Please model this.
Amino acid sequence: MKVHFKFFNGLFFILLIGLSSCGLKYDKGPTLEEINTNRKLSLESQLKKDYASLNKTYTPLEYGNSSVIKPLSYKRLDSLFNEKYQLTQSGLPTKQIDIEIELQRAIIAQDTNEIAYVETHWFQLQEDSLFEYIVGEFALDKQNEIIEMTTLDYFNATKSDVSMAQKYMKETGFAFSTSFTTELELEFYAFMKNRAAQLNGAEKNAFLKNVFNVMRIANSEQNLSTEAIVKKMAQIAITSKYPLIKPLELSYTINSLIDPNISKTELIEVQVKNIQSNEVIETFLYDPWLMRVQ
Model:
């Protein structure tokens, strides 16, 4: 037995050397992660080229979850394979289901509809001093070519707002010195984006410009409370209008009011007073999204 073992062990070694000398090797193929990465890189390459032809500079920002859209013929094949798996687990014969699987494969071979891979992509376009921000849903084929694009969101911004616009798109932290986005910041994004979704065109762009201003103020104050932000906004308005007045000469009274035009909508009233005389210099009104209404 010992001699036989050495013989077969030596034979295996010879075969291994022979296969290696023929250049044969096992190729495990790309991983699912690599396939998804390659799809995104291909998408970005196509968008960069397409927008360059329009004199626009494309910058990728973020991705949502990937998904797959299968034609009915492919879904039917998946269902058949699932049935076969259930039969196998139960120890039952699969001869009939195997025939149906082969028939379905033949149907797929004749089906002109293909599987589409869907990517939700946030990106920026720049043309001179104008910056555009787009959330697009892209369908790609097996060759990673774009089949279709659906615009889910769009707005534009000026150069001064680029930093905050990118944070807004990616929902990264902006108010505090942390390496992550806090719950307060996520709540802020959800609140503002819900409102922005109800607006269009110039009204939406004006709304978002104010949002980016609020984000800058929150960053400078390291505070995301409504009171801190409206105080700072009122202070900036007063000192811009009256350059001789210093911030330390001001006091603030903040009240909540009900908007008579929109029932149950609270307005934030900020009275700015001179500390020494206690006289009201000016009164400001802000809506719940911190846009000045008066």
Notes: Helices lie at 2-21, 32-52, 72-89, 95-110, 162-170, 183-196, 201-221, 226-241. Residues 243-286 form one domain.
